[in-house]
Backbone:
């Protein structure tokens, strides 16, 4: 007659073995090279695009009363998608090195695109951003965004200008530059 005690003992030792294997895997995970994080700029651009769709797109009904905007704002903050003063340390020097700068030509877009250069966290940086893009020959405006800061939008009239603005914004230290589908000029 078999007793259940050995089976229980086997399950416990198997459980301990599994726990040891998991602990070993977790321990080795710290030694293995970490996978490269996805491009922060692209991730931030995607999050801002989703926020624009909620703020400026057709108003869908809330799903179960859940406000997705609050979740997106929290993700934007957690993923460091805001542009701080330390990000813009070389802004004026870059502006001087790019002068004289003329926005690139090319076939005109059907309507001007609003390219979000970034979201700055104080009015001083908003003024610096306006002066920077204005000095490059672009129209620029800022828009306050609740719980985020001030969004900097630059007008692009051609596809080449969209690429130029996104590239220059990245060089200047702005985080997550992208052309908005929802914000217009």
Residues:
């Amino acid at each position: 007659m078999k007793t259940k005690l050995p089976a229980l003992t086997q399950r416990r030792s198997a459980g301990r073995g599994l726990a040891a294997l998991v602990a070993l895997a977790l321990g080795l995970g710290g030694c293995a090279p970490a996978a490269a994080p996805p491009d922060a700029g692209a991730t931030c651009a995607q999050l801002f695009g989703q926020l624009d769709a909620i703020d400026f797109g057709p108003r869908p009904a809330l799903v179960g009363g859940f406000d997705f905007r609050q979740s997106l704002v929290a993700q934007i903050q957690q993923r460091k998608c805001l542009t701080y003063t330390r990000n813009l340390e070389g802004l004026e020097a870059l502006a001087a090195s790019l002068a004289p700068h003329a926005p690139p030509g090319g076939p005109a877009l059907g309507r001007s695109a609003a390219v979000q250069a970034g979201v700055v966290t104080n009015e001083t940086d908003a003024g610096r951003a306006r002066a920077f893009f204005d000095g490059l020959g672009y129209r620029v405006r800022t828009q306050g965004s609740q719980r985020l800061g001030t969004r900097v939008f630059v007008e692009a009239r051609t596809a080449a200008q969209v690429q130029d603005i996104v590239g220059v914004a990245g060089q200047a230290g702005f985080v997550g530059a992208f052309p908005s589908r929802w914000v217009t000029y």
Summary: Strands lie at 108-120, 140-145, 149-158, 178-184. Residues 82-184 form a domain with the Alpha-Beta Plaits fold (CATH 3.30.70). Helices lie at 4-31, 40-56, 68-78, 91-98, 123-135, 159-172. Residues 8-38 have pLDDT under 50 and may be disordered.
